[in-house]
Amino acid sequence: MKHKYHIKKVTVSLLALICLFILSIQAAQANPWWKEGGDWDWSYNNGARWSIEDYFKTNEDDAIRIGNSHFQDWNDYPANYWYSGFDSYKTKFTVDDRNAYGYVQSNSNGYIPSENYFITVNGHQYSVSIGDASFKNKNKILFSPIDTSWLDYGERHYVTLEVRSKNTKYHTYVVDGGYLYKSPYSGKVYLEFAVPFNDFGEYGEDVNRSTTWNFNQKDNYGDGIDFEGASTLAIIPVVFAVIFVGIGLRKNKKYLSNLRKVKIN
């Protein structure tokens, strides 16, 4: 009797362990560690601290709806041209009350850089790269920049952003923060991306109407795009204020964002 009782007890224990194992797997699949959202507790990766954001989510009132408008939201924004060797790129930049947005368009050679886009916020410089990220666990991330020259005609997909702080070497990864597309007709490559203010460095950036911005790329010969302000309360050039003072300013954020102080070099 004791022998049978011992076998029964072991069987029950094994069944309990199997049930616990199955439940733990289901919990992990329902809420994987890198999709919990928000800022992560920092870890070390090759000597640099980093955090991971949940999937980037667009909002209908975003100045630029990443991937949702197929670049049409950029139509009314002024363009700047960057030059590097024999390559040239059409670029744009803007911000709203939560994100900074970049736009890059290649010439007919179908190539744009995937690394070393610089966004400077009040003198704090951040490097932005686009690529594919593989999140093994909280202590290991594999990030591979995309070679855009290998894109197929008509190919489009979201990409992960790697945002690096120059001063602190802090890395932030924004999943699906960028959208990449290669035209099946012209062969040109288009990129748009958004960096939430909270993802600039370890503690984010406090942005207001006096915030200064610069958008550039490492190999560009020029000074990039200078920008001042944020959100619908961004500083508006005096010339526009004079023109519209008699008729009032419309409150639509997308409309006002086109009137913010922008200096293109």
Written as H for each helix and E for each strand, in order along the chain, the element string is: HEEEEEEEEEEEEEHHE
Compute the separation of the termini in Å.
90 Å
Number of distinct beta strands: 14
Helix content: 10-25%
* Shape summary: globular
Helix count from the secondary structure assignment? 3
Largest beta sheet, briefly? 14 strands, mixed
Provide the number of structural domains: 2
Q: What structural class should be given to the helix and strand makeup?
A: alpha+beta
| Residue fraction in strands | 35-45%
Would you give an account of this structure?
There is one protein chain. The chain is α+β, with helices and mostly antiparallel strands. The protein has helices at residues 2-30, 238-244, 253-257, and strands at residues 43-45, 48-53, 80-84, 87-95, 99-105, 117-121, 124-137, 140-145, 156-165, 171-182, 189-196, 212-217, 225-228, 262-264. Mean pLDDT is 75; it is low at 23-47 and 232-265. Residues 1-30 form the signal peptide. InterPro entries: Firmicu_CTERM (IPR026409). The chain crosses the membrane at residues 230-249.
